[in-house]
Amino acid sequence: MSENKKRQSAATIIVHTRNADGGMRMVELLRENARTVEYVPFPLLDAKINHYWKR
Predict the structure, then answer these.
(1) How far apart are CA 14 and CA 48, in angstroms?
(2) Model confidence over 5-45: pLDDT tens digits?
(3) How far is CA 4 from CA 23, 25, 53, 54, in A?
(4) Contact at 8 Å (CB) between 13 and 35?
(5) Which candidate, 45, 51, 50, 53, places its Cα nearest to that of 23?
(6) Contact yes or no for 22/47 (Cβ under 8 A)
(7) How far apart (Å, rounded) are the C-alpha atoms in residues 46 and 54?
(8) pTM confidence score
(9) pLDDT at residue 1 above 80?
(10) Are 52 and 44 spatial neighbours (Cβ–Cβ below 8 Å)?
(11) How many whole angstroms separate alpha carbon 16 and alpha carbon 7?
(12) Cβ of 48: how many Cβ atoms within 10 Å?
């Protein structure tokens, strides 16, 4: 996604992982490429998905 900036440019990307260091590197890379990104710790993913589906 960082290589093709036009692909789904309006999407919010949710990075979820048990590997916080790797997840934060991914968030930084995507933000450097003008993506909207949220980091969500894996145990909180269900709550975040429910939050987005209520929109």
Answers:
(1) 9
(2) 788 888 889 998 889 899 999 999 999 988 999 999 888 88
(3) 20, 19, 27, 29
(4) yes
(5) 45
(6) no
(7) 13
(8) 0.73
(9) no
(10) no
(11) 21
(12) 14
